[in-house]
Amino acid sequence: MQDDITIIHGLSSAALAEVRRIERQKKYLWPGSIGSAMVRWKSFVHQPNRRLWDDESGGCTEWACCGDPWRARESLEAVILAMSRRRARELRCLVKALDGRY
Q1: Whole-prediction pTM value?
Q2: End-to-end CA separation in angstroms for the chain
Q3: Max CA-CA distance within the chain?
Q4: Is 32 left (phi over 0), alpha (psi -120 to 50) or beta?
């Protein structure tokens, strides 16, 4: 059974397979990192105090705990650019909806 973090709801199985392949290929990613980035970005844009994020606050820097939402968004963009046009469209649609909320 797959962990929820590896599944990005709204993506086809082909797009998920492509995300997993890219996660294995890129040294700055790990298995499940894009699912985690999606969760991080989604939770950030849904927070009422999201515009108060301060990179210089010296708070928690652990990705698994608090994570940097900007790093999450950058990771999503990097994978979108690495994906095939057809599959990237799926992920881009999900990310753009969150961007619009932000």
Answers
A1: 0.82
A2: 33
A3: 40
A4: left
CA 59 to CA 33: how far, in whole Å?
A: 21
CA 10, CA 30: separation in Å to the nearest integer? 21
Say whether 85 sits in a helix, a strand or coil: helix
* Identity at 70, one-letter amino acid code: W
Asked whether 26 and 82 are in contact (CB, 8 A), the reply is yes
DSSP structure class, residue 57? S
CB atoms closer than 10 angstroms to residue 90: 20
> Is residue 78 a contact partner of residue 26, using CB atoms and an 8 Å limit?
yes
* Per-residue pLDDT tens listing for the chain (102 residues): 345 557 899 999 999 999 999 999 999 899 999 999 999 999 889 887 755 555 565 555 555 556 788 899 999 999 999 999 999 999 999 999 999 998
